[in-house]
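Please, why this fold?
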Amino acid sequence: MDDGSSHSRETAISGSMKIREKQILAVSPIAVVYHFGTSGIAVATATGITHPLDVLKVRLQMQLVGQKGPLKGMGRLFVQLVKNEGPRSLYLGFTPALIRSVLYGGLRLGLYEPSKFACESAFGSTNFLVKIASGAFSGAVATALTNPVEVLKVRLQMSSHLKRGRAIGEMRNIVSEEGVKALWKGVGPAMARAAALTASQLATYDESKRLLVKWTPLEEGFYLHFISSTVAGAVSTIVTAPMDMIKTRLMLQRECKRVGSYKNGFHCAYQVMITESPKALYKGGLAIFARLGPQTTITFILCEKLRELVGLDAI
């Protein structure tokens, strides 16, 4: 009996030490670099593939500002954009988008794991709510730090000028004409969107995988990741589309321009619902899903593979 009890205690202590070791490793400098690097590369790759859909999303969200009327569909807008501005217009704002994807993607997914382990150390639990909180925290912090690049990106996506060095010139224009604080326009809705996106995306992805493994013949692999990430993309779109639209409107807002003057995110949402109808909050929703679905799939599959290569555990 004593030998059995001693063995159980040793096993429990050993297991506890391994968990503690894992927690320490998760927040060590080299692990943080690996988390950031794998996440940044995965998101940058997904951004490169889905960027044209992001351009279409922004154009759809800026239709009939302050007006009611029939909206163009994604297909019609795509044809019109290519015809009037050329195929290169589908990659407007690509340079800042790529920079942002490395920084934002690396921070958003890279901070998730260390945040989760920090919560586990502090509260002794990693339940579903802790995962949501960790995702929301990492998404909000990542957005707050990278908002200037996002502002620059959406400004360029609405521009038909394709001159070399346009990104630097537009950045100078924003600062000189509107002030440095203009680079943080829409940061509130952007942080709310990123917090909701990261929390819903990661939580839904995890839960979908768990349920699919439990109730279907699917096992860990491409098809499981594909279906789970598609579900996560759909849920994330429903949750974040209104915040995404408000964020875009605020970031494109300029004094004395047709976008009008919004005081904050809530005022913007109210004005959109009053002048354009409540469903206007979902302008560009199909484009968001068309982009977010594949982007989520590519990001998670590639990130899992890269984590495996550098010796990190799966998300």
The radius of gyration is 22 Å. Residues 185 and 251 are 5 Å apart (CA to CA).
